[in-house]
Specification:
The complex is a heterodimer of chains A (297) and B (140).
Chain A: H1 4-59, E1 74-80, H2 90-103, E2 109-114, H3 116-124, E3 128-133, H4 146-157, E4 161-173, E5 176-185, H5 189-196, H6 199-210, E6 216-218, H7 221-296
Helix pairs in contact in A: 1-5, 1-7, 2-3, 4-7
Chain B: E1 6-11, E2 16-29, E3 32-36, E4 43-47, E5 50-56, E6 61-66, E7 69-74, E8 78-83, E9 86-88, H1 94-111, H2 116-138
Parallel strand pairs in B: 1-8
Antiparallel strand pairs in B: 1-2, 2-3, 2-5, 4-7, 5-6, 6-9, 7-8
Helix pairs in contact in B: 1-2
Classes of the chains: A alpha/beta (297), B alpha+beta (140).
């Protein structure tokens, strides 16, 4: 049995760990709240941009190079995960989903990864990584996503890809987040609709589409579409980042909460062990003294 | 049904900037300034760098600095502006905008020898910052 001193040391270590995990939990709570607020604020823009495209595409046959599937055979997937670990099953779930997609693929896949863990997941799935972004975090603003948007548009313009998809963790509530994938290029209204709209919004949206009038384009249809489609891609990429961040912090919050709770339990167990060890030592000493005294008599 | 006011929204990827019933909206598009009154026909246009003016229901003018984006005039007097960035004129911090302008100017000098893409980007950035300064000063 361990001595009192050893146990005491262990208790101190575990309580220190508990302090750290507790702090990380608090930090994640505040970051998660911030990300949820930003995601909600950004949703408005994405929904409006998408509605605009929906309005236009329903009214007449619009055509634009970015609305056609590419000539290439491969599909490009943008994968969002975290840079840091210690966030429970967040990255593992995403990695699992990526492997599932890879297994069921109909076409060759190539990936753009966001976050170090996404890069690792892509390696594990033995996918070709076209580009890897590791400097996006919870402070990243929407304008920093133009570099990613440009990269994707340029790659798509080369014609080597068929479609562009994105895979990220959708934040459904504080306790539920699931990896999802959506097609972003060419933008498919029916697919993206579920991405932005919840049930209640969807009904209003359907209703709106019925009452359409003819839109006038200024300066020209092609120029306007050349502006709108990249905007939608940008909005999607940014929104996915915010959702992924919100999920990551929420996952980390729960992982850290569990860790703190476990550490608490461990401290209790160790304290009990320490008390027992101390009591055993006292009992032993007394019996030694009593034994010694008896021997003298 | 003729309406007397416009339901007007400005949204950016970061947040919703403005959402109110207004009388008229003057927007800098790539084809020049366009004023939209209630019951305008549905239209889609591209916004360029400039000053966006909104006439509120009490007749007061509400100026915004805007860099680029999309203007959508929807049926039944609803106007939506999807802006990359937009600010209410009096909320612009002039000294900070001037600093940003200087930074862009310096970056442009450095980029002068580099790729054309960089040069064009900094030029656009300078134009945006200059616009913010102008708009902010005019409405101070």
């Amino acid at each position: 049995m361990a001595t009192g001193k050893e146990i005491k040391l262990k208790i101190r270590t575990v309580s220190n760990i508990k302090k750290i995990t507790k702090t990380m939990e608090m930090v994640s709570v505040s970051k998660m709240k911030k990300m949820i607020n930003r995601a909600t604020a950004s949703k408005e823009y994405a929904v409006k941009a998408l509605q605009l495209l929906a309005n236009l595409s329903l009214e007449r046959d619009i055509s634009h190079p970015l609305l056609e599937t590419g000539k290439g055979e491969k599909n490009l997937v943008v994968v969002y995960a975290s840079n840091k670990g210690l966030c429970g099953g967040f990255n593992a779930n995403l990695s699992k989903k990526l492997q599932e997609i890879t297994k069921n693929k109909k076409r060759e896949l190539e990936v753009i990864t966001i976050g170090k863990q996404a890069e690792r997941a892509a390696r594990r799935a033995e996918l070709n990584i076209v580009a890897s972004f590791i400097d996006f975090n919870e402070k990243t603003g929407s304008d920093q996503f133009f570099s990613l948007q440009k990269t994707i548009l340029n790659l798509f313009a080369t014609g080597q890809y068929h479609e562009v998809w994105m895979l990220y963790t959708e934040f459904q509530s504080a306790v539920s987040y699931v990896p999802v994938n959506y097609k972003i290029l060419p933008p498919d209204i029916n697919n993206l609709k579920h991405f932005f709209l919840d049930k209640e919004r969807e009904e209003r949206y359907e209703h709106k589409l019925k009452s359409l009038e003819r839109y006038k384009f200024e300066p020209s249809e092609q120029e306007v579409l050349s502006k709108i489609i990249p905007e939608i891609v940008h909005a999607c990429l940014y929104y996915a980042h915010l959702e992924s961040q919100a999920s990551e912090h929420s996952a980390r919050m729960f992982a850290m909460k569990n860790a703190s709770d476990n550490a608490g339990g461990l401290v209790d167990d160790l304290t009990l062990q320490y008390n027992k060890a101390r009591q055993a030592a006292i009992t032993q000493e007394i019996s030694e003294i009593v034994g010694g005294a008896e021997a003298l008599n | 049904m003729a309406k007397k006011s416009i339901q007007f929204h400005i949204v950016t990827p970061e947040r919703k900037i403005f959402s109110q019933e207004v009388l008229e909206v003057t927007v800098p598009t790539t084809n020049g300034y366009v004023t939209i009154l209630p019951n305008h026909i549905p239209m889609v246009s591209i916004i360029s760098v400039g000053e966006l003016r909104v006439k509120l229901s009490d007749g007061e003018m509400h100026p915004f600095a805007i860099s680029s984006g999309i203007l959508e005039v929807q049926p039944s007097s609803k106007v939506v502006i999807l802006a990359d960035r937009s600010e209410f004129a009096t909320e612009i911090d002039i000294s900070r905008a001037e600093e940003a302008y200087k930074r862009a100017e310096e970056a442009m000098k450095v980029a002068h020898d580099a790729a054309d893409v960089d040069y064009a980007r900094f030029e656009a950035l300078m134009e945006k910052e200059l616009n913010r300064i102008h708009v902010a000063k005019r409405w101070k």
